User: Fold these one by one.
Assistant:
Number 1:
Amino acid sequence: WALGAFAVFVVGAIGSVVGGIVADRVGRTLFSIAMLVVSGLSGAFIGLTEDSKPAALVVAILWGATILPDSPQYSTMVSELAHRDWMGTALTLQTATGYIIAAVAIQMQPLFRDAFGWQFAFTPLCVGPALSIIAMIMLRNDPDAHKIAGGRK
């Protein structure tokens, strides 16, 4: 199982590299939405695999492959859209917001486990992706979205 845990991290790294290439072709917001949907659903369903280690590993690897590749897209979009004078602040705010949402979700896991059982312990991991999907849809509809990836929003 240690090798399986390592695989989760490796596919995340590979997903980030491949994800950058794919996002440049299909659009950053569209790519990010796809990754968010899959990673959010992985968080929702991994608790349901508690009786099957192989199933849990498959879901964890899928989660690992999709949880990381959207993060570099956010930083890239911020750098494409933010005013140069505010770029550092904007990138800091974007990164800090992501970490805060993740930290809160992780702290909520034991509370959900105790209240609802292991099946729903990972449900808080869906909050970040859900909020981010809404943000990406709003960004896609923003008039400045044409500045993203040479118009491939």
Note: The chain has a mean pLDDT of 93.
Number 2:
Amino acid sequence: MAPKVPKAKVCINPRPSSCPETSEAQNPARLLNESGLNIRKKRQLMKNYVKERAAHMVDFDSEARFIKMLMDLSNKHRKNLGHYLSSRYSMINGENVTGFLKSCTYNGEDCSDPSLWQTLFTPTYGNCFTFNSGLKNSSVRTVTVTGPLNGLALEMFLDQGNYMFNKLSRKAGARITIHDPYFLAMPNEYGMDLAPNTASSIAVQMNEIKRKPKPYTSKCIDNWEEADYPVPKSTNYSLVLCQRLCHQSAVVSNCSCYWPELYIPSISDTDDRYTFNMRPCSTLLEDNPDRVCYAETIRQFDTLNRTCPCQVACSERQFLSSVTVATWPSNQYWKYLALDIGTYDEDDINIPGPRGEQIKKEIQEDYTRAEIYYQTLNIQSIEQTAKFNLRTLFGSLGGA
């Protein structure tokens, strides 16, 4: 049987989490106790620490305010504010704006048609685009040949010139997730980063896991009805999604708002069911009742005073990836890429000088490539079986 092509979801990567981290080795509170530091050095160290912490809080709260304003909008308006898959005309700029996807080929054929892609919104990455999704009753592709020439090849425009200011865009690149066509993608948990000026070769092998339901020890779940969450039947059950729904519904129940970092994207522009018809919580660090309520709710789960009705899935497909990275475009190819884009003058590209170097720098900063393909068609299957069935049970009883 030919394995099904996995679903690939790519997101532009303009804004990582701004949560500050301070290791114990860098914490001045511990260094103050060290006898090797004089009083002046200790005072300066503490002054720098307080200043750094204050700056981190400002950065975090800037992102918190932005996310709050963004999540107050409808799902449709949030998508309209994000990057588009293909080029479009901008009423504000009065010109065509380059889309996220510069080129796409699958099995040697063009796949850049927007109808082949599904757009989902996430608070962290904005608009994400999914190829080969089975969530909208579209046909899922199968593959019978391995290797990069028979897989999915993407060239993406990162558009760093339009990244957000105010420290909201700290990383450049894109994020890609390889997953089951009938699962809802989780780029935060399962994604991998694609850096600018690189070509990533992602070789995939599929694993299948089958478990036994109750009364066997795995106590696996086969569908969403058993977990009692409002997920469309076209979406396969997954433990990660179930846990996120569980935590989000608990926050909604306790705090009368939904936590943006637990937001689950909806397929439809009009059906934003995973917000539970509630307002988004504020994620500000200080003087924020929403954050206090959220922290207390999650603490109930951490201390096992509250649990989720979630178990592992009875049937699960995993796509294990092996990634290699090369520089792209090369010193020879960038000129052809710049000409193919069509926004640069041919003389500026070919004549040596500062303008040509500037174009080369822009190409290196704004483009990345990824190739996703099956490394082998062998499927590793892991199946849980009963230690005793009816025949082996009677056989083990013995007798004359």
Note: Confidence is low (pLDDT under 50) at residues 15-32, 53-58.
